[in-house]
From TrEMBL:
Gene3D superfamilies the UniProt entry points to: alpha/beta hydrolase (3.40.50.1820)
Lineage start: Bacteria, Bacillati, Mycoplasmatota, Mollicutes, Acholeplasmatales
Pfam families reported in the protein's UniProt record: Hydrolase_4
Species of provenance: Candidatus Phytoplasma citri
Identification of the protein by name: Lysophospholipase
Serine aminopeptidase S33 domain residues: 17-242
Amino acid sequence: MLLDISYLNIIWSIPKQAKANVIITHGLGESSYDYLFLIDFLVKNNFNVISYDVRGHGKSLGKRGDIKNFNIFSDDLAKLVQYVRKMYPMKIFLIGHSMGGIIVNNYIVKYNNIDGAIISSAPSREISNCLLNYPFYVFSFWQRKKLNFKSSKISHIPLDTDYQPYRLESVSYRLLRNLLVLSMRYLKKNFSSYVTSVLLLYSIKDQIISYKNGIYLLDSIQSNDKQLKLYQETYHNLFHDIEKFQICNDILVWLNKRIL
């Protein structure tokens, strides 16, 4: 596999004495700049943190908010993992939020070559939406779905508007079909290959992605090292809400136990 990752915008945050690598994959319409709090927290705890803009998002190249095939996302991540492994030969952990969790889950069952993963607020089964399935999908193929980062369902805390220029205003229904239908079917067919250590983070009060997706994923995958944490007050964006300090500390405890 060629290691050309120049089309990805990547934030490299490297402390002097790192003990492992963490690669962050952001959510739908977001960019790596939405994760500066999490990045700073992990760097202060001596982790190399590599946060990148998914293809077609943020400053990365690619058609804005669109993708032909969901495998492109996981293949991009595979190139980045290989590059990081070459540059910093230590354990590699993946963090994926929402859409990023979809990408990481599909990466795991396809490549199965990292030391652990943390999945937050990600769907784990096919979402029923007539616009994403035939015959109605034929009519919505080239349409766009507007994104609302001001929605009260995302977080108790208003999102930082400083990074608004890097967020997408809309995404294609083709992208949504790839993420919420086709990749979910792929994941379901390959649950038996999901043997990586994983920490699942969901919130009881998430009105966008039900915590039941976390329960379903926990029950379906074959990993012998799997854990689900359910938070009581946070909404969808776990890393930018009222329980973010507890969530980051839970991540730190989990990571430290797996780098020994």
